[in-house]
Backbone:
């Protein structure tokens, strides 16, 4: 089975919260992760302090995806991520593959393409943002992101 992932408000827009959502095509399985503007700014400061400011966006994006799907990905064989950062597709895929492998999740195909506005993942991310409906979204904070980065050695 396939899950699709979409983002509302890019990571680099540090004045607004970001929501990343996933859904199956039939919406039978859905989830979302939210990170506040404040936490994104603190993560950005961390990346600046370790002299890797350009990785802030891409690593944060991947770790958010990982934290959102790590407990529900079992049983799915394909992840399709909406193309948010052209030119970084291979980096995003490989970093996510490495994080999943740490959890012993290896038989998942990961790809990046335009999933479009008709995707249930797009609707979920947009609705979470616009309607402030946070019932299924998990809140992710800077400590979870930075902790995962340090633990996995992603940088």
Residues:
């Amino acid at each position: 089975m396939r899950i699709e992932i979409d983002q509302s408000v890019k990571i680099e827009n540090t004045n607004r919260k970001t929501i990343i959502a996933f859904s199956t095509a039939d919406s039978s399985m859905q989830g979302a992760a939210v990170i506040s503007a404040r936490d994104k700014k603190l993560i950005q400061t961390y990346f600046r302090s370790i002299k890797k400011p350009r990785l802030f966006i891409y690593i944060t994006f991947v770790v958010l995806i990982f934290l959102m799907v790590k407990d529900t990905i079992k049983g799915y064989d394909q992840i399709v991520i909406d193309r948010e950062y052209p030119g970084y597709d291979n980096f995003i895929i490989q970093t996510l593959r490495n994080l999943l492998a740490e959890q012993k999740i290896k038989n998942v195909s990961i790809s990046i393409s335009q999933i479009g506005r008709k995707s249930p993942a797009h609707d979920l991310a947009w609705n979470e943002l616009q309607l402030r409906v946070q019932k299924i979204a998990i809140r992710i904070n800077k400590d979870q992101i930075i902790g995962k980065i340090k633990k996995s050695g992603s940088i």
Remarks:
- The helical segments are 37-49, 55-69, 89-102, 120-131, 142-152.
- The chain has one domain: 2-148.
- DSSP finds five helices and six strands in the chain.
- The domain at 2-148 is CATH 3.30.420 (Nucleotidyltransferase; domain 5).
